[in-house]
Every structure is written in structure tokens, then in C-alpha cells.
């Protein structure tokens, strides 16, 4: 017998509603395509792996987590649109993202206004969590990262450094400022200060003027896309001094374009897949198994940690209510993450060691871990 159309539609709707109630929706915004695709793809893969594991272990509060991931195409303006949609249409209970600080800064006020907790896995600019008490991060911040590299430069005996900043990125501007502060506080000298903008392809004018200032090293707190071209052009111009950078250099893509032009250069970051710690090696194994043998980078590990910390907070809160979830997140203490032990301070930032890597032999080599 054929059911009346209306009845079957109603039944279908009821079934969907029941299913929806069995899920907890988590929003994610990431640069899956565009200029910083390597950031978003990695963080998304780490996040997705965590969600899959949590669900395989029974989910949270008796429900499965449903990750709704959106691509912001590495474009300004997109994070705001996406996060509005995730909150008002999809009704997510929390938001994970972004890697790049400027993107996180765009979305944070929207999460704050809607009382939806947001966790950035990797944005290091201090302003991100200053937006409000619903905005968290699980990584260290740039005043620390900048100081780490300033001290490292000094330990190498480099007294005169030039700086080349991406003025379009809050991350780059902030990190340059904190590096300069740390470097000059202990007697270092900044002999040249040059600028560029995200998307630029020709850095020869800036590099030529930097070369004339005869620095011992050049600090380039940018993202891998531009940094790889800067490395190549510096070599072409006969610049022999090392380049120094921060976590924005991370990812396989850097050396694909830079080739060996960055040999002898150094940068700070969050994680090394060579770390012998059992938790790290376990994670590397699981990640490789899921993603065709690919080795996880910093953003993958941070993406993973951010999703697990969120799931733990939902469990602790016993509810997905925004305010209670915010309080549970704020109470995160000594969480055993892949990227180290994570305790959130009163400003919703994590205090964690940084890793310094050197470039050579077609890859990255572990140099040292620097404790806060
Ligand atoms: N810290 C960078 C930012 O705030 C992003 C980043 C983190 C890039 C980790 C690579 C690895 O914009």
C-alpha cells in the first residue's frame, strides 16, 4: 500500500530530527584552498582524525560528533561569512579554527557575540584571545616565539639583523615587533626594516637594500608561500647570511619552491614528528595510516589537540551550553597533547615549549626545544 505523500514526508522529517539530536555539531573553518592551503589542509586532517577517533570510542555525552568543515579559500572576508553560517544555520556548539591569526581575528568577534566557544589551534598573535572570554587557543603566543628567535640569534653571535615583514598579516607584524623588542633589549641592532604584502612575487628591491646594510641574519616572519620566493631571490642576489623565521614557515611546500636556497636558515615552530615521545610516535603512526603515509606537521598536531580538548571540555561540562562549555574549556589543565602538556592561563592562551628547526639536506633538522 502506498503511504500518503504527506505522511512519508513527515516520517522522514521525524527521522532526520531524531538523527540530528544524536549528534553534536562542531564547526571548523580552514584554508583548504588558496595561498595558505598547506595550513588548512593539515589542520583539517588532524582535526578530522581526532573526531573520527572520538566517535569510534563512543562519542561524547552518548552522541556522535559531527564536524562541519568549511573552506575559507585563504581569503579575507570569508571567515566572517562562514562562521556566521556555522552558528546561525548549522547551529554548531563550538568553532575550531583558524591557523592564520588574521583569519582567527575575523571570526572571533562573531563567536564572542554569539557565546559560541572558539578554539584556534595555531594562531599565535596575542590579539586573538583578547577578543573575549569565548575565544581560546592551544598554542604559545608570539611574544614568546619572537623572544625565542631573538635569543637564538644572539646565541649564534649575530649582532646586526634586518627584518622583512608582511604588512598584510597581523601575525607577521606582531612577530616582527616582538623579535625586535627582544633582540634590541639585549644589545642587538636592527640595521634595516623592510616590508612586503601577501601575494607579492618580487622581493628584489627589499632584498637589495637589505644586502647593502650588511646584516648578520635576516628575520622574515612570513608565511611559507612568500618566504620560499624570498629565499630563492636572496640567493640569486648573492645574499649568504641565514634567514630566520617563525611557525609561518612550516610545511612541505616551503622547500618545494625554495629548493636549497634556505639551507643554513632556522625557524621556530610547535612540533617535530621526529620527537621520540610515545604519544607523538603513536600519533604519527595513526596519521600516516589514515593519510597515505603523509607525515603530520605542526598544524596537523595542533588541529588534533584542539578537537580532543574540545571533546574533553564537552564531557566535563556535561552539556553543550555555550557558557558552561566556555567555563570547562577555561579550566583545561595539563592536557596531555601531541604538542605537549596544555594548560590554559587566565588569558585563554597556552604556555608551551617551542621547537627550533634548521634547514639543510633537503629537509628540516631538529636543533633544540626552548622552554617558556
Ligand atoms: N602562528 C601563525 C599565525 O598566527 C600560523 C601558523 C601556526 C602557521 C602553525 C604554521 C604553523 O598566523
Number of domains: 2
Cofactors, ions and other ligands in the entry: phenylalanine
Q: Give the overall shape, derived from the CA principal axes.
A: elongated
Q: Biggest sheet, open or closed, and with what strands and sense?
A: 7 strands, mixed
Q: What is the CATH C-level name of the largest domain?
A: Alpha Beta
> Helical region count?
13
Gap between N and C termini:
72 Å
Question: Spans with pLDDT under 50 lasting ≥5 residues?
Answer: none
| Strand composition percent | 15-25%
Fold-level CATH name of the largest domain: Rossmann fold
Using only C-alpha atoms, the radius of gyration works out to 22 Å
Order of helices and strands: HEHEHEHEHEHEHEHEHEHEHHHEEEE
Mean pLDDT: 95
The helix/strand class is alpha/beta
CATH architectural arrangement of the largest domain: 3-Layer(aba) Sandwich
Number of DSSP strand runs = 14
Widest sheet, order of strands: 7-6-8-9-10-13-14
Determine the fraction of residues in helical runs and give it as a percent range.
Answer: 40-55%
Name of the CATH homologous superfamily of the largest domain: Response regulator
Amino acid at each position: 500500500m502506498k503511504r500518503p505523500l504527506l505522511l512519508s514526508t513527515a516520517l522522514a522529517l521525524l527521522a532526520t530530527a531524531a538523527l540530528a539530536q544524536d549528534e553534536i555539531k562542531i564547526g571548523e573553518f580552514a584554508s583548504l584552498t588558496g595561498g595558505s592551503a598547506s595550513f588548512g589542509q593539515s589542520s583539517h586532517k588532524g582535526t578530522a582524525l581526532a573526531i573520527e577517533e572520538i566517535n569510534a570510542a563512543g562519542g561524547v555525552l552518548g552522541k556522535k560528533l559531527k564536524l562541519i568543515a568549511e573552506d575559507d579559500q585563504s581569503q579575507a572576508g570569508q571567515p566572517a561569512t562562514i562562521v556566521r553560517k556555522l552558528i546561525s544555520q548549522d547551529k554548531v556548539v563550538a568553532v575550531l579554527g583558524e591557523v592564520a591569526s588574521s583569519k582567527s581575528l575575523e571570526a572571533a568577534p562573531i563567536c564572542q557575540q554569539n557565546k559560541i566557544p572558539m578554539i584556534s589551534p595555531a594562531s599565535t598573535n596575542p590579539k586573538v584571545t583578547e577578543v573575549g572570554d569565548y575565544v581560546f587557543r592551544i598554542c604559545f603566543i608570539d611574544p614568546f616565539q619572537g623572544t625565542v628567535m631573538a635569543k637564538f640569534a644572539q646565541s649564534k653571535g649575530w649582532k646586526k639583523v634586518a627584518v622583512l615583514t608582511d604588512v598584510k598579516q597581523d601575525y607577521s607584524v606582531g612577530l616582527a615587533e616582538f623579535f625586535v623588542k627582544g633582540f634590541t633589549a639585549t644589545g642587538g641592532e636592527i640595521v634595516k626594516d623592510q616590508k612586503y604584502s601577501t601575494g607579492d612575487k618580487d622581493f628584489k628591491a627589499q632584498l637589495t637594500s637589505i644586502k647593502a646594510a650588511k646584516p648578520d641574519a635576516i628575520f622574515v616572519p612570513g608565511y611559507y608561500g612568500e618566504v620560499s620566493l624570498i629565499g630563492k631571490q636572496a640567493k640569486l642576489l648573492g645574499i649568504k647570511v641565514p634567514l630566520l623565521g617563525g611557525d609561518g614557515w612550516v610545511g612541505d611546500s616551503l622547500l618545494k619552491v625554495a629548493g636549497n636556497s634556505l639551507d643554513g636558515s632556522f625557524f621556530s615552530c610547535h612540533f617535530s614528528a621526529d620527537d621520540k615521545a610515545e604519544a607523538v610516535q603513536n600519533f604519527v603512526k595513526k596519521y600516516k595510516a589514515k593519510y597515505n603515509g603523509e607525515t603530520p606537521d605542526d598544524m596537523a598536531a595542533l588541529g588534533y589537540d584542539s578537537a580532543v580538548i574540545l571533546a574533553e571540555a564537552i564531557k566535563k561540562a556535561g552539556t553543550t551550553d555555550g557558557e558552561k562549555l566556555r567555563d570547562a574549556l577555561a579550566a583545561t589543565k595539563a592536557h596531555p597533547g601531541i604538542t605537549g602538556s596544555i594548560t590554559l592561563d587566565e588569558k585563554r592562551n597556552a604556555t608551551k615549549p617551542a621547537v627550533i628547526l634548521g634547514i639543510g639536506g633537503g629537509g628540516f633538522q631538529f636543533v633544540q626545544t626552548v622552554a617558556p
